[in-house]
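Researcher: Quick test of sequence recovery. Tokens follow.
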């Protein structure tokens, strides 16, 4: 199970796409294509937007989802997979099905 403690610390930078359980291809992750920094248990800085978003983690039948709440009222959610303390993947569904991004933590 993914926790906020797994996310906080360092900057998460997209390195590749993520398909069939493996890092693969180019990252497809707007608006997170310049990276994320989880500041605390509810705030994440989105570098490409130069602003803080709220986020939350929720359990799903297939694992965990991460929900992003933009200050302008928009809402996005993605499946989140943590491979180890320095790698995570975000995978879209529904309207954002093509979204797939594999991030590495940089200190």
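Model:
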């Amino acid at each position: 199970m993914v926790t906020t403690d797994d996310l906080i610390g360092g900057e998460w930078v997209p390195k590749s796409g993520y398909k069939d359980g493996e890092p693969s291809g180019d990252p497809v992750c707007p608006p997170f294509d310049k990276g994320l920094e989880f500041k605390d248990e509810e705030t994440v800085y989105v570098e490409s937007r130069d602003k803080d978003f709220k986020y939350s983690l929720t359990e799903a039948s297939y694992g965990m989802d991460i929900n992003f709440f933009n200050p302008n009222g928009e809402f996005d959610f993605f499946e989140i997979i943590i491979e180890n303390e320095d790698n995570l993947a975000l995978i879209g569904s529904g309207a954002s099905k093509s979204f797939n991004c594999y991030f590495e933590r940089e200190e």
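The longest strand covers residues 51-60.
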